[in-house]
Design the sequence.
């Protein structure tokens, strides 16, 4: 989702987390509150289809679950990745035996999808931060350019294009998805 505006003021992370979560979502980054705006159609299609593809692979194997717009709070930040994959041992279960809604850890896979007007530089910083602080892998998907930047260990490790295959080792062993298939979702069938 695109970062639309920044709100100033002095609010701690704990105060921020006491606020009700509402749309548009807000993120707490480096002491600032950043407002996210609704994605456009291409963004939403990739977000939905990627989550569905990951879950079709990992759920039968008991490897974890992918979530759309899951709030993840860690290392003084509270972010809402477009897609977050959590390995089974990191999936929160509440007292009712249902999926929990509070995640105080980074996602195992952090995915962001560029929307028009979104700052690519700010999004890269988020992915670098996540992959420096516990996310095994980060994917930054560019629908218009048909490319995917892959982040590991806080750094850009490679850029994938049509003809390449997106893999998720070690976070999601064996998961592979052709880049062409991801961008093929943008065409009506």
Sequence:
């Amino acid at each position: 989702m695109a970062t639309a505006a920044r709100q100033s003021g002095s609010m701690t992370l704990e105060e921020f987390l006491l606020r009700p979560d509402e749309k548009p979502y807000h993120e707490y980054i480096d002491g600032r509150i950043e407002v996210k705006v609704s994605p456009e159609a291409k963004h939403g299609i990739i977000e939905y289809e990627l989550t569905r593809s990951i879950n079709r692979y990992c759920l039968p194997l008991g490897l974890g679950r992918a979530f759309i717009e899951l709030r993840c709070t860690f290392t003084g930040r509270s972010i809402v990745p477009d897609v977050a994959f959590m390995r089974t041992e990191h999936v929160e279960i509440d007292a009712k035996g249902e999926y929990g809604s509070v995640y105080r850890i980074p996602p195992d896979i952090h995915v962001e999808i560029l929307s028009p007007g979104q700052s690519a530089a700010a999004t890269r910083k988020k992915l670098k931060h996540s992959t420096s602080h516990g996310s095994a892998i980060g994917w930054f998907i560019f629908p218009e350019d048909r490319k995917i930047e892959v982040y590991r260990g806080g750094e850009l490790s490679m850029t994938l294009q049509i003809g390449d295959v997106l893999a998720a080792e070690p976070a999601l062993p064996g998961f592979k998805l052709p880049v062409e298939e991801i961008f093929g979702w943008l065409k009506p069938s």
